[in-house]
Amino acid sequence: MRATYIHGAGDIRIETVPDPVLIDPTDAIVRIVRACICGSDLHPYHSKPAGNPRAIGHEFIGIVEDTGSAVHTVKRGDFVIAPFVWSDGTCEFCREGLFTSCLHGGDWGDENVGGGQGEATRVPFADGTLVPVPGITEDSPLLPSLLTLSDVYGTGYHAAVTAGVRPGETVAVIGDGAVGLLAVLAAKQLGAERIILMGRHQARTDLGREFGATDVVSERGEEGIAKVRELSGGHGAHRVLEAVGFMPAYEQALGVVRPGGAISRVGVPQYAEAPAGRVLFSPNVTLTGGVAPVRKYIGTLLPAVLDGTVNPGRVFDKTVSIEDVPAGYVAMDERTALKVLIAP
Amino acid sequence: MRATYIHGAGDIRIETVPDPVLIDPTDAIVRIVRACICGSDLHPYHSKPAGNPRAIGHEFIGIVEDTGSAVHTVKRGDFVIAPFVWSDGTCEFCREGLFTSCLHGGDWGDENVGGGQGEATRVPFADGTLVPVPGITEDSPLLPSLLTLSDVYGTGYHAAVTAGVRPGETVAVIGDGAVGLLAVLAAKQLGAERIILMGRHQARTDLGREFGATDVVSERGEEGIAKVRELSGGHGAHRVLEAVGFMPAYEQALGVVRPGGAISRVGVPQYAEAPAGRVLFSPNVTLTGGVAPVRKYIGTLLPAVLDGTVNPGRVFDKTVSIEDVPAGYVAMDERTALKVLIAP
What we know:
The structure is a homodimer.
Chain A: E1 2-8, E2 11-16, E3 28-36, H1 42-47, E4 54-55, E5 60-67, E6 79-82, E7 85-86, H2 92-95, E8 106-107, E9 120-123, H3 126-129, E10 131-132, H4 143-148, H5 152-163, E11 170-174, H6 178-189, E12 194-198, H7 202-211, E13 215-217, H8 221-231, E14 237-242, H9 247-256, E15 257-265, E16 273-275, H10 278-281, E17 286-289, H11 295-306, E18 318-320, H12 325-333, E19 340-342
Parallel strand pairs in A: 11-12, 11-14, 12-13, 14-15, 15-17, 18-19
Antiparallel strand pairs in A: 1-2, 1-4, 3-5, 3-9, 3-19, 5-6, 6-10, 7-8
Helix pairs in contact in A: 5-6, 6-7, 8-9
């Protein structure tokens, strides 16, 4: 089969590799119907040292091709959503819904586990990882939206939930990437009254408005902070959803959060130390969020996707075949595409 | 009247100053019945530059001596508890209970406002600041416990509430000062099943056990972290209440918190930058807490104090007259006293 490997910074290759096989009785083999490229894939794309090529991609939906003898919740032919990490489903963290802290879980692309940007993959702990969706076929128009449940939509929702968004509140969303836009949608679903999207790519912020943003602030730094505070009654937003991960975004969050409010981060922090003393303490600001345990949210978010109430798949603005995945990385990196769908 | 002033590091003086007078119609004058010295008073005691003497003390209970024409909720002769900041009671933050972010509030010892460690003080915004307690007289045996509601008990409770302590959980409390010990009591009241107190002054940790600590860990650093993790099933405590404020205490908190858990800080951070990137993000740890809006909690905590169910006043292990307040600072600083009560 064909699969995507990263060999080093800027070096994405499509290779022919052996078809995946069952190793453990808890495994499944999934043929991948749709996958995509994540903003977080750009981090290794920018910085991976050369050597030790690794299968890449962690968002996919597909059809179960085979299962081990100990798999009970999915069977051959089932349509499934794969969260962006695999998890045993039985450890104390999985039982609490914190699948990202699974004691026996791991990442797509780990040894003997395929990446998401290929034609098929071995799935460890199929019962604890995959979420079957009955009635979906490979030609469903819902595929793009279902695919967002493997990462970006669940991640945006995690930001809104952990920040504690409540009806009537003002929410600021930092970042107009796919996660930021879906954090807007999530905040809207949780009843936020005013949703201020900070971003400056108009095509993206226009989509953000369709998802529920009431205001767009394109300014950055002090000017952007002043604008958000002005829009939120002078004291800032109750909840700030930070969907970037770089220090300026965190500093922006500190600037726009209201005393007693919360900053939820779902962009992977690209820093180790940060302002976190009295700047949080004096105004009683809570810092929350983290790696989203998206599997927990699939059941909650699925009904509105299935009945068409929401259409999170609109974040995809470019589709490539597997052979064109390297071009998809270029498009994401150069920001000519918001998010790239892969139809292997 | 006599009142306590700080002139510089280590320089606490008792001085004769004019009696306080009403300035605004929303003021009250309160005669102070009991006050105390706070761990946080030791920060200026260690580091205040010489010059610009300032009235000190921010925890007191007393009797209303006089009120301005616009004061409606307290009257002459009322017994009152004063929270450690004054607040208007009417701004948008006060209405939400975040009295520490009052738009027009301030600190005891500010210009034209007395400190708590004196015989009397002017109280701005008496309606928004003071909490009257009917039926209490100056010889009540409950005075020490009522005094803890002005700061330390409410601060410990804030740690437990903001951390989200729930019945059955494991809580680690870092610090065996008065706030840490009362955070233990608060965690117990909120139903924590296992409460691990990290501290190494046995007289204090013994009191912590009486307040509800099920375990005491006297080790620090990696050794202390290993011990707490061992006591909490290997993965750490659901809630960590950090009642110190120095970096080693924060690092300890990071080491003992369970994935998906929360660290609540109520010790004023003595640092600006801190590890706050993936160390929080990857395990989905929430960082919360802050300056406690204790006025919000007085109504909740008062009944169990009045009926004797709890006795938070046990944190006081030394009593001084006003003339001996400087000796009280020495005792707190040298840790020969846990917390010093002042009977002016």
